Amino acid sequence: MAESYNFYGWETADVKPSDPVYKNAGTPRELYDVLTDIWCKETCAPRLQDEWSQDNRTLGQCSITAFLVQDIYGGEVYGILRPGGNYHCYNVVDGRVFDLTSEQFGEEVSTLSYENNPEQLREKHFEKREKRLRYELLRCRVQEQLGIWPRMRRFNQQISYEKCYEILKEQWRGVLSVNGDSGYPHSFPMDFYFDEVNGKLYFHCAKEGYKIRLLTKDPATSFCVYDEGYREEGEWALNISSVICYGRIRSMEDGDEKYAVLRSFGRKYYESDEAVEEEIRKAGSRVNMLEFTIDRMTGKLVNES
Fold this sequence. Notes:
Order of helices and strands: HHEEEHHHEEEEHEEHHE
CATH superfamily of the largest domain: Electron Transport, Fmn-binding Protein, Chain A
Strand order of the largest sheet: 5-4-8-9-10-7-6
CATH topology of the largest domain: Pnp Oxidase, Chain A
Largest sheet: 7 strands, antiparallel
CATH class of the largest domain: Mainly Beta
Number of domains: 2
Radius of gyration: 21 Å
Shape: globular
Structural class: alpha+beta
């Protein structure tokens, strides 16, 4: 780790991870060291990719970096309004203000104001699918670099995050696996809804039962979805794309948030809004909505031969 840095606020960027998944991340200064080997043209904002270089590796990386930092250390993300209407994002954690991507501005950074700026919400930023997908790529590579998850061994079969999202949006069912009794995993076929803006999966079930007992005991889960596959002309073997998500599940409280998700869920499976509302009227109060926060997502194309 370097003894000094050039990013804004580095002197006080010494907080520790708030999410135990990232316990190996160290301080934001140590995370910066990891990110310098990961930031690339692929993770750069599309409008700036032609200008990106190894000499200016923080260019176009601000929002996805700031929200990843928020995942790891908590706190808030704020934005400095820039010419053209975009916001440059930075972090505030426990009163410490720091900006891991400030070096892209060079000497201009001294003219930026890090006070009295509006808070930035990931739900708004990630309405742009390309930004959400760049965030997924950055998160995946940071997790691999930190040793949280292994790199896919047959990485040449790995599919893009865009393809992963398409599978999660288009497929109807998957298999949810939880830690069962006596050391055995337990799997449940499940209908599901994927919200690509907040990057979460949702399931519905009864408020009591074996599944809920297991999830209360241990919320760590995985969820697998795969498509119908295709055959190349003259071949017998299927080519199947699958997605596995790892994460943590919580039961949602009764209230507006639950019913908003339940309506989105229903629109995936029912023919009309009227049918959704009728089902909610009859059974909504008895439904337990499960929210799956994704910590890791991988996708793979496999040939059956």
